[in-house]
């Protein structure tokens, strides 16, 4: 694992200018060795210069101990090494100083200038010393050896530490850039993880909202019809036993349908991968054929979609058959006539009208259209019992439109007087369903005193 910048900063707990204790120990050790070397080399220098030996030793100790500040002032270390070169001392001082200088983040021209000065100083001193030794007869080699020895010695003392320092400095900068890149990637991954968690929470919230909407649609409609039939059963139980038996059968059928749908939804919730199975089921639904781009749809267009010219197919008030919801598929427009028939059987004066060529749509589109009509009929049962209701469905080229409009009830009624509680979420749920598919939803009272719910859904949603 990589450490972040804050972690590395916290790790820098060394004394003074050292980032780590081991760096301080290394520099102190190098300074002691260099001071000892320079002190030992100061003895012959003092004898040659004709000064007291103690002066040469002290000068060597001071010069060698400069390595203690090599990380803080590398230029000063190299200058001191160049200064003591004529005294033939500071071998370790010069090598370590050049290495530290090349490894530092200094301009290349500064490093080159100081390295050139060290090279020239070493070459001159070596040239003079070797020439003196040959003049005294210590060496019997030809005159070519003096410049050769001067050049090779200068290169040997300057090039290796300089090149090594440049390599270590470049590698250090590369590692630092890699650490910064790793820190940046770590921060980005953390942000991505946070965003993924936010998206997961949003998806969970959307799924909870969808499930709550489905539960509301199933329970509100089925139970509302059951309450209406139960009230009628109570009213005719003694007067008309045959009609009471039919109402009881209807209540039982609707209860079984409600339980079936509730069991399906609860089964999805209990499964460990319920949410994923629902999403996979949606993913395999074949998309409908692409339809031409439709014009913008407003409230006026909703009225036009279901206006005059709609062929009327009146639905009688016969007994509703018990429809079992197909497992995992949900309702569709094919069951719309049965839905209207159930309301008619509950005593509602309702008619269904269909315009255009009947065709199939995507599962979500058909479910949404069915739920809109179902919830609108439920609201009529709750708030306008006894009112004549018109259900209109229009199949258009690029969209499907539906409208549920009820006339004013014979007598003012309310959800409380009918014994049907209202949660106030029906219209909100319908609007959410339609808008999620890119459609338009409009609801509100009519001029005649009734209420109208209209929706238009694109056929290619």
UniProtKB/TrEMBL annotation:
Membrane-spanning residues: 49-69, 75-99, 111-132, 144-169
GO molecular function: kinase activity
Annotated keywords: ATP-binding, Coiled coil, Kinase, Membrane, Nucleotide-binding, Phosphoprotein, Transferase, Transmembrane, Transmembrane helix, Two-component regulatory system
Region entry Disordered, spans: 404-424
Name of the top EC class for this enzyme: transferase
Catalyzed reactions per annotation: ATP + protein L-histidine = ADP + protein N-phospho-L-histidine
Signal peptide coordinates: none
InterPro entries linked to this entry: HATPase_C_sf (IPR036890), Sensor_HK_TwoCompSys (IPR050482), Sig_transdc_His_kin_sub3_dim/P (IPR011712)
Pfam families named among the record's database cross-references: HisKA_3 (PF07730)
Gene3D superfamilies registered for this protein in UniProt: 1.20.5.1930, Histidine kinase-like ATPase, C-terminal domain
EC number: 2.7.13.3
Chain segments annotated as coiled-coil in the UniProt record: 168-206
Boundaries of every Signal transduction histidine kinase subgroup 3 dimerisation and phosphoacceptor domain copy: 207-272
PANTHER family: NITRATE/NITRITE SENSOR PROTEIN NARX-RELATED, NITRATE_NITRITE SENSOR PROTEIN NARQ
Protein name per UniProt: histidine kinase
């Amino acid at each position: 694992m990589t450490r972040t910048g804050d972690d590395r900063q916290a790790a820098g707990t060394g004394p003074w200018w050292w980032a780590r204790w081991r760096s301080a120990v290394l520099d102190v050790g190098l300074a002691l060795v260099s001071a000892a070397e320079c002190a030992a080399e100061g003895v012959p220098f003092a004898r040659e210069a004709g000064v007291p030996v103690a002066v040469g030793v002290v000068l060597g100790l001071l010069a060698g101990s400069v390595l203690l500040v090599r990380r803080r002032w590398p230029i000063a270390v190299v200058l001191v090494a160049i200064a003591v070169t004529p005294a033939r001392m500071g071998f370790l001082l010069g090598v370590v100083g050049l290495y530290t200088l090349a490894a530092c983040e200094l301009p290349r021209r500064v490093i080159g200038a100081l390295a050139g000065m060290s090279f020239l100083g070493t070459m001159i001193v070596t040239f003079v010393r070797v020439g003196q030794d040959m003049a005294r007869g210590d060496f019997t080699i030809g005159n070519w050896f003096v410049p050769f020895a001067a050049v090779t010695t200068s290169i040997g003392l300057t090039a290796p530490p300089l090149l090594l320092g440049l390599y270590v400095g470049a590698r250090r900068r590369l590692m630092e850039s890699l650490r910064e890149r790793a820190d940046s990637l770590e921060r980005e991954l953390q942000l991505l993880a946070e965003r993924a968690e936010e998206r997961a929470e949003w998806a969970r919230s959307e799924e909870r909202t969808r499930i709550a909407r489905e539960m509301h649609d199933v329970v509100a409609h089925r139970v509302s019809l059951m309450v209406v039939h139960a009230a009628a059963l109570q009213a005719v139980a003694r007067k008309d036993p045959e009609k009471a038996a039919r109402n009881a059968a209807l209540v039982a059928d609707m209860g079984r349908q409600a339980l079936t749908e509730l069991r399906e939804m609860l089964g999805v919730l209990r499964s460990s991968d319920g949410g994923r199975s629902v999403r996979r089921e949606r993913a395999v639904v074949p998309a409908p054929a692409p339809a031409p781009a439709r014009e913008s749809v407003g409230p006026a267009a909703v009225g036009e979609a279901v206006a005059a010219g709609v062929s009327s197919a009146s639905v009688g008030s016969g007994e509703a058959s018990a429809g079992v919801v197909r497992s995992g598929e949900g309702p569709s427009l094919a069951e719309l006539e049965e839905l209207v028939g159930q309301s008619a059987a509950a005593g509602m004066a309702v008619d269904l009208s269909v315009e255009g060529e009947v065709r199939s749509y995507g599962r979500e589109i058909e479910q949404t259209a069915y739920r809109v009509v179902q919830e609108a009929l439920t609201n009529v049962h709750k708030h306008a019992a006894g009112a004549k209701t018109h259900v209109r469905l229009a199949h258009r080229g690029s969209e499907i439109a539906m409208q549920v409009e009820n006339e004013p009830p014979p007598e003012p009624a309310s959800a409380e007087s009918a014994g049907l509680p209202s949660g106030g979420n029906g219209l909100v749920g319908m609007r959410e369903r339609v808008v999620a598919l890119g459609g338009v939803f409009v609801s509100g009272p009519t001029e005649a005193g009734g209420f109208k719910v209209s929706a238009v859904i694109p056929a290619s949603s």
